[in-house]
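Entry 12.
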Amino acid sequence: METKREFLKKLGLLTVGGMLGGTLKTAQASTAKSNLFPPKKSIGLQLYSLGRELTEDVPGGLKKVARIGYATAEAAGYRERKMYNYEITEFRKLAEDAGLKVSGSHVNPPVRKYTKENAGEIADFWKTTVEDHAKLGVISLVQPGMPTIESHDDAAMVCEVFNKAGEIAKAAGIKWGYHNHSGEFKRVVKEEDKEKQRNPWMPVGDVIYDLLLEGTDPSLVFFEMDVYWTVMGQNDPLEYFEKFAGRFPILHIKDRSVLGKSGMMNFENIFNKAYEIGLDEFYVELENIRENITQFEGVKQCFDYLNNATFVK
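Predicted 3D structure (tokens):
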């Protein structure tokens, strides 16, 4: 089987490693020289990136995010009908007073295995969640946790639940979507095809992510692709943008650490293709900082990288 290292090397001309006509390092150098004081762009931040540095002082943290230059934020602190332990309307005011628009939110339902028996419970959860997020004023509501999918029947049930969630959100004027990690690029195999799995050179079964894309209604469910986790799942974001054009209006822009430092992700090609097929918004997400810096310092470096990049509009 192809190793991850071999896969990333092969993908170098598309989304990782070097770029045609130059390396990622030279691209970064040229963009930095192009404008010493570039205008601020509309760049969003997934607040999960800040961890305790935000939750220990939410009002102050939101102000720091805005001062860095982020225009929008995607929340990840909805619990017990509150946001980061604040009443919904109170949290909205904190963000607005800081000069930040909370345009999206990540929320997971309370169950992982979807069945006919608990589909109604999950729908009720989304009804309450949508009601609260309408007060928050978000444009999008996204599920970031992968349900249990071990068969084609599981995938079909998940698609049914996703469509219902999308229907509930749409009625309130909110777009409902799903955020991937790398597990969605595993395959599920029909019983009659399991014998073929013995040949390691011939992939068998259907990719879960594809089943979700194909089994959901595009008018009800969008997909917030995390480009880093897509590459870690040994897939090319550009190929998905092409194959399922219009399904990825929002992206998570992520690297192994601070954006642009690993040399693994070709963000220029990713942004160019995303704009071509239609990109409404994107959020920086930062996890596992490898440098000896704070989370706030990390998200500032991410902002500066994108704000200086000529390929980001």
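Annotation: DSSP finds twelve helices and twelve strands in the chain. Residues 150 and 188 are 6 Å apart (CA to CA).
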